[in-house]
Hints:
The chain contains 18 helices and 24 strands. The strands form five sheets. Strands 8-9-10-11-13-12 form a six-stranded mixed beta sheet, sandwiched between helices. It has a five-stranded mixed beta sheet with strand order 2-6-22-23-24, with helices on one face. It has a five-stranded parallel beta sheet with strand order 17-18-19-20-21.
Amino acid sequence: MHPDLVLTNARLLDPGSGNLLPQDALVLSGGRIAGFEAAAAPGVEVLDLDGAVVVPGLVDGHLHPVSGAERTAGADLSGCTDLAGLRAELASARRELKDGQWLRGWGLDPNAFGDLPVSADTVGLVLDGIPAAIDLFDAHSMLVSRRALELAGIDGPRRFEQGSAAVVCDPSGRPTGLLLEDAACELVEAVAPRPSFAELCRATAEVLRRMAAAGLTGGHAMDANGESLAVYAALEEQGRLPLRLRIAPWVQPGAGPAELAELIRRQGEGGRRWRVDGAKLFMDGTIDNGTAWLEHPDCHGESTGAFWPDPAEYTRVIGELHRAGVPTATHAIGDAAVRHVLDAVERAVAAHGPGARHRVEHVETVPDDTVARFAALGVTASMQPTHCTEYTRADHTDNWSRRLGEERANRAFRCRDLADAGARVVLGSDWPIAPFEPLGVMAGARHRRPGRDLRQPPHLPGQALTPLQALGGYTLAPAWAAGEEDRAGRLAVGHRADLTVLAENPLTVPDTELAGVPVLLTVSGGEVTHRAV
């Protein structure tokens, strides 16, 4: 063994027990953890960590690096809390436009509209005469200007393969400017300017650099759309891919045998730090838009249908992928959607035996009997606690909670119930839906307060995770979900040298201070990808 890097004077934290290991050094060789006894070797860098805490590399269980890099190129509207603020931000962005240029925005919270409809008319004159496309925070809907509708040829309702996709229209059949789900949004994206491949690579590289600086060594990328796989390959060739990415291409309603066969064939495709592994499906949309699939309608009579117009076809596809050994991750937010995914997995396992590991993404509101099924079926719950803390309110006056009503809003984002029931809970950000900083997500999982104002009361504090559970959600759980528990997620000899070094012990720092703990070093496969020591 010839060491590549030696870390000394370290506190090594085990995410399983929460204890510090008795050793104080790590030897990294060939991209793996080679041992715990520091030994001098010619030409080997030795880093004295001065008592800093080393944890296994933090992995975001749900993010969108390439599409997010493109999506966040416009005006950041995530700080707009009312219409006056939204109009001011849009007016400022409009002043920066050149003739004919599109106004793009992202991160818009529908709560900014109060009780008014999310529509171009509600926004007002600021968008008149210009093409504009604004992503709402959930990335499942878009608000576009009248000019953008005109350029896209949208003058009334449309029918789509995606069951919950829609061009929202007023009672007269005139589009309001609100588009729901990808199929509808793509009508405008098809005529809007797109970045060049080089521009997309540069933007993605910068995002990944910032993710590494935040302590991330990996992520489960929930799309392979457009040129994203080519972007990852190009960045790795250029030495600008600091994260290890596990990528799940989408399977959409209407996918035929040839498409499924191609997806199965592509499993394992990739490079040193990226690979295609799994499939991403959708069972519903979002509660804020009325496109989730609920067992009972929301307060507007919406959220009553599945993303797959024929849910039985989804069940068949899950069975085929399971039989082929392809792990799946299904977006399911409403109780009916989550229940259907679990039913489909149960049928697949009964028909073909155990094998591929499946997961449900988001799990925003479910009853007790659904919670209990995750552990029994071995299905991972992939949760984003900051979606709860940043976009809902403890008093249930937010759009999400009002749509659901008290009963369902009171069973929101049940991270703790799922963990206590024995389910593996993977944590993540769903960036760009919410900030990607892992310490901030873990903090939100623990204190259940909005990170922008920690003075606010906690959202359903009984669902708070313990510090050890939150750390496991970024280490042990994503390793298990990826089938890599024998080589990732722990500080053990032979495991990958993916490490995050923190200035303080994340298990003992107060919940409300965790997000501010400095990340001193990030190491991916033995290579330093961020250094502040």
